[in-house]
Amino acid sequence: MLKDISLETLNHCAKCSTCTANCPVAKVNPDFPGPKAVGPDWLRLSLNAETKVDYPEGIEYCSNCKNCEIACPSGVPVASLNQLTRAEKLKKKGFRLREKLFANPRLLGRIAVNFAGLVNFFTKIKIFRLIGKTLFGISENISFPAYAHKSFSRWFGSYRQKVNKPKNKVVYFPGCFTEYNKPEVGEALVKILNRLNYEVIVPEFKCCGQPAIGNGRLDTAQEFAHFNLSQLKKYVKDGTPVLFSCPSCLLTFKEEYGGLLGIEEAREFVPYFYEAGEFLRGLQEIDKLLECEPIEGKYAYHEPCHLKASGVGTPGLELLNEVAVNKIVPLDAGCCGLSGSYGLKAEKEPITEAIGQNLKKAIDRHAPEALVTECGMCGVQLNNVSGLPVYHPLELLAEKITKES
Amino acid sequence: MYDLVVIGAGMSGLMAAGAGARRQKKVLVVAKGQGALSLSSGCIDFNPGLLEREEGSPYFKVREVVEESFNFFKYLVKRCGLNYVGSPSEQTRIFTTLGTVKNSCLVPESMFLENPDSYERIIAVGFKGYFDFSPKMFLYYAKKSGIFPGLKETEEVYFEPGVRTVNTTWLAQALTRGELKEKLIAFLKPYARPKTLMVFPAVLGDLPEDRLFKEVEEVLGVKVVELPGGFPSVPGQRLHKALVSSLKEMGVNFLFNAEVIGYKKNLRQVTSIKIKESGGRVREISGKAFVLATGSFWGKGLRANTEEICEPIFQSKVYLPRNFAEDFNFLASGIYTDEYLRPIKELENLYGAGSILANSNYLKNNSGLGLALATGYKAGLLALGDGEVRRNA
Amino acid sequence: MKKLKTTVLIIGGGATGTGLLRDLALRGIDALLVEQKDIAHGASSRFHGLLHSGARYAVKDPNAARECIEENLILKKIAPTCVEETGGYFIELNSDDPAYTAKWLDGCQKAGIEVREVDPNHLKREYPLLTKEVKRVFEVPDGTVDGFRLCWANVWQAEEYGGRYLTYHQLEGFEKQHGRLTAAKLRSSLTGEEVFVEFEVAVNAAGAWAAEVAQLAGVKVNLLQNKGTLIAFNQRIFQKVFNRLRPPSDGDIWVPHHTITILGTTSVNVDNPEILRPTPEEITKLLEIGKELIPEVLELRMLRAFAGIRPLYLGEESNSQDSRSISRDFVIIDHEKNDGLKGLISLVGGKLTTYRLMAEKTGDYIGKLLGIDRKSKTSEIPLTPALAVEEKNRIARRYIVRAPKIEERLKGVTEEKQVLCECEGVTVAEIKEVARWEDTHNLEDLRRKTRLGMGTCQGLNCAHRGLGVAFTELLEKSQEPLEQLKEFLKNRYAGQKHLLWGEQLREAELLTGLYGCNFSLFGGTDDV
């Protein structure tokens, strides 16, 4: 796999620096020389014994936000190359407990969701955060995502779906954030889909693997990927669409499984993967539902980097604009800076904070009442910098179109 | 179903989308990667003299919308706080970091050099550890240019940003945030005297709305000029960001990281394009009209292998200049279009714009972004069936 | 006019001339080398960079094979930073003649070249790009050699021993007295200054220009100018030299050279050593043959195509035009014996691998002429320190005796550590220091010494930076710095323009866009 990504890089990179110009981390952190330097430059020099450097300096600062890859005019898999190199470097250095923990949000999530009140309380207490910083290198200031009191699967297990025959079916991958932190997103999607006469299937899943990739644990990510794909196999064989409400999960399934993680068969699944909003927008029946009571208020929209990277556009925003009284304002402030568990690490905190300033500026300029974004962790950061409530487009839509008339 | 689907998010694509947004149409821009726009100097090079070219040249085809398109462009970027100065009928002279003189029509306000003969001193401001700008070299050529007849003295000064390595995008960002800005202004204060011109590499703020140059001017009472330089090009990034942000605000939809690989047609109309997303998923997007603004070789609008050069999406006919390799003639390659910028007779709702057009040799004609701007705007109008434009054309 | 005196005047600053300068200097014989352009600007850098093990000549020319392996081992010992001990493979494809392989193995054994058969499957696994047609693979002690570095190493060491050199000096004519050459007239191409050099013996080591030098002396050297075209690929595709196991022919050598790989070469006779242009036919041919080893060769990014001239000696009467059959051996011509002209020796033919031996033999001959009986020390005194490539000492390996000043600059916290040429990893310190050297005159000289601009971007990011960083020095030395930049870019484009398709064409457009548009360096049309 490394061979392919290397060759693609070497054959296509023109050294134009567009990747570095678009890297949110390089902009705020002078110790990160940018995706080009740690990626294509390093790779080419490392093949020559005289110029070889074992691992590029600063590569740990890459947040896998994918902006380099999105901006690249030459189709170079910059982000993937850098994930591979970074993972190797981290592995060689030895993983900290922090990386192991963050790599699998389900470990913590499963416990935390049962003691949500307690956990949420403790993560706000200064002294515990200080201990977290000293012992584990976890940031003491960035807000942790709050845990829900009831996981999505517990809600889903007891929810009776209302669908008429003949019914359609979709599979839904809720992802860890919906599962443990914001089950409302999943609930909203299930209710909307039911209105459109779709029955929702949620098989048992593991984490998508993006946090594992971000923490350099590619083996773990691979293990999750294989499990998740095996759970999907029978549905995909029947042509059942698979829906994602989390952009990072979507991107991981669509892009990383077959690309970075090198699972060849994952490519065959890709045609069945949909971003939830994208799927809804594609249904003719949705038009009727959109003739509902309009969404009022002034909202601003943040486009998550991983949504942008997955190449589906902004269907959630387009749907909302069909129903909204005021056009939803696109913030267009780039990466939020949190990048999943990246910003939760002590040494990354200043980076996350500095990148977040762009968001803050944009929010201040437009002064919305609330914010909308698809990504849970982006939502955490949006709330951090603005104090405003943050919604997934599905939540806003569901509130209107599933209202019993 | 979109009213207008634009392929490519460079200057011409964005202007086409802008033309649509201005008329409240439902517009989608599909793009894979950032092309030449964000690598450009940020200046809108244009050669007014070429408008009198013979029929068939891309200049001739847009001559009646040039003024309007340039004004609309100014409006678009200004929405994001980025001001441009100049007009398509006259070129203005600016300097680059190399000390070369560049003729361009519209330039960012921060680069505009008015009345060069009024300056007696030039302070060239470099940054310690930043090697993309040599104040020494700039001053040598600025003096030699004869553009500053009143010049009495020059000085090169170096500000220390205080970090180990200085890269362009970091510097541009850091100078506008926090204490570094104050430090810079304090550092420059002793050099502030009347009739002084301070020149900087174009790193005074990374966002379109950053107006650090104005702030320095106001605080120090000197004239400040930014110089475009190598890659990454901050003014190119600002320009790209300003256009995209404005269009988003105007309701244009964007689909990034997706490559257009083909199309479908019905009779003489393109009905949809086929796109390939990340992970290789292929799907169709339908629209009423389409603008092909995929750029030249760099933008991958044209593809060359050892056998041939083609336009890969619609297989439009490509013009190949003679002596392809000599004198950078290859830059003149491009697709043929009719008087309405349509590349293919059989596809009535497809329009071409920008550097993909034949004979848009931006080097020889010194009109890269300017021609892209005008052709993009016109293609957008034509694609929306704007009758007035057609009559005029 | 400047007047100089020397015992031996060496004309030509390629491997032959610089090798002889070192040889004579180490013997304590006073010598001055003059070169029309920069050191190693001709065939000594315009070749594939292969340090022959001799295996390539094992069947056709056993003598050359033996010489090669001996010199190969000596160079690895004395100049470890100029050569890289990559090893090489000879690859027999299914379509190749197995009988030749047998002959070849026999030849290698006779010449004393160590050969080890390697499992072809191992090779296919390691290099997935390789054709599936690989049948048998043999490893030999081939290596690679950096022509620029080797020539400069010779010059710099000679300098320590009293040898002198003048670059950018064009030979304009000789003084003759009583049937003996006594002096040469030169002119600096940078300042126009005339230089008059008196000597006892002149050595014509002008390579492809040897016939012209001879003509200035009024004698004839019968040379065949044989052009070899090569293609440089962007990356190190292989870690060893890859040779085809078949009678030596066009396009059958792939040499990993620093960060790049060179595919060579063709063999075409030309009339003029200045004709260094590859033709489309040659490139097509090279790539066609390259395809046999790497079927997807066209997918690989290429940087440039370039050509060098092999000056092949035809002897006095030979009319043969089949260049591959003419010996690539070197010849020492004493023009006293051939033409009755005293004081001139011509050194022609030969190959880079055996440059030291050639210098040794010539040194012996000159010693005899001058009545100085001293032994050559070139195989004993190390040319460069013994620094292994693994030790991560790029600076010391590259700049050899001149490295300490650069290392000094790089000590501690300094902005000069910053990488200026991102493709080749060249730091600001290197550019600043090398620009100060007396033998660096312009941006092109800087490039040859540092590799600035020789990577993927071909000067896109580093040429303008380099010019800025070295501005003061470059301004003092020669023509206008911006003119130097134009010249630099023109030369880069001269290599790119033969490969204008795919990614190379995109790169060329990018380069034109930056320098032509953003910088308006070439001057666009003015307001009409």
Automatic annotation (TrEMBL), chain A:
GO cellular component annotations of the record: glycerol-3-phosphate dehydrogenase (FAD) complex; membrane
Domain of life the protein comes from: Bacteria
An example Gene Ontology biological process: anaerobic respiration
Coiled-coil intervals, chain numbering: none
Chain ranges of the 4Fe-4S ferredoxin-type domain: 3-33, 49-82
Classification via Pfam families: CCG (PF02754), Fer4_8 (PF13183)
Keyword Repeat in record: yes
GO molecular function: 4 iron, 4 sulfur cluster binding; metal ion binding; oxidoreductase activity
Cited SUPFAM superfamilies: alpha-helical ferredoxin
Database matches in InterPro entries: 4Fe4S_Fe-S-bd (IPR017896), 4Fe4S_Fe_S_CS (IPR017900), Cys_rich_dom (IPR004017), G3P_DH_GlpC_su (IPR017753), Helical_ferredxn (IPR009051)
Protein's name according to its UniProt entry: sn-glycerol-3-phosphate dehydrogenase subunit C
Organismal lineage: Bacteria, Bacillati, Bacillota, Clostridia, Thermoanaerobacterales
TrEMBL record, chain B:
Gene Ontology CC annotations of this record: glycerol-3-phosphate dehydrogenase (FAD) complex
Claim: Oxidoreductase is one of the keywords in the record: yes
Pfam families: FAD_binding_2 (PF00890)
Keywords annotated in UniProt: Flavoprotein, FMN, Oxidoreductase
Domain FAD-dependent oxidoreductase 2 FAD-binding residue range list: 3-46, 175-359
Keyword Ligase: no
GO molecular function: glycerol-3-phosphate dehydrogenase (quinone) activity
Superkingdom: Bacteria
Cross-referenced InterPro entries: FAD-dep_OxRdtase_2_FAD-bd, FAD/NAD-bd_sf, G3P_DH_GlpB_su
The name this protein goes by in its record: Anaerobic glycerol-3-phosphate dehydrogenase subunit B
Organism of provenance: Carboxydothermus islandicus
Taxonomic placement: Bacteria, Bacillati, Bacillota, Clostridia, Thermoanaerobacterales
UniProtKB/TrEMBL annotation, chain C:
UniProt xrefs under InterPro entries: BFD-like_2Fe2S-bd_dom, BFD-like_2Fe2S-bd_dom_sf, FAD-dep_OxRdtase, FAD/NAD-bd_sf, G3P_DH_FAD-dep, G3P_DH_GlpA_su
Pathway the protein acts in: Polyol metabolism; glycerol degradation via glycerol kinase pathway; glycerone phosphate from sn-glycerol 3-phosphate (anaerobic route): step 1/1
Enzyme class, broadest EC rank: oxidoreductase
Every BFD-like [2Fe-2S]-binding domain range: 420-463
Keyword Membrane: yes
Membrane topology: Peripheral membrane protein
Enzyme Commission identifier(s): 1.1.5.3
Pfam families recorded: DAO, Fer2_BFD
Catalytic reactions of this protein: a quinone + sn-glycerol 3-phosphate = dihydroxyacetone phosphate + a quinol
Keyword Oxidoreductase: yes
GO molecular function: flavin adenine dinucleotide binding; FMN binding; glycerol-3-phosphate dehydrogenase (quinone) activity
Cofactor (UniProt): FAD; FMN
One GO CC annotation: glycerol-3-phosphate dehydrogenase (FAD) complex
Keyword list, A-Z: Cell membrane, FAD, Flavoprotein, Membrane, Oxidoreductase
Coarse class of the protein's main subcellular location: membrane
Family: Belongs to the FAD-dependent glycerol-3-phosphate dehydrogenase family.
Subunit structure, interactors included: Composed of a catalytic GlpA/B dimer and of membrane bound GlpC.
Protein name, as recorded: glycerol-3-phosphate dehydrogenase
Organism: Carboxydothermus islandicus
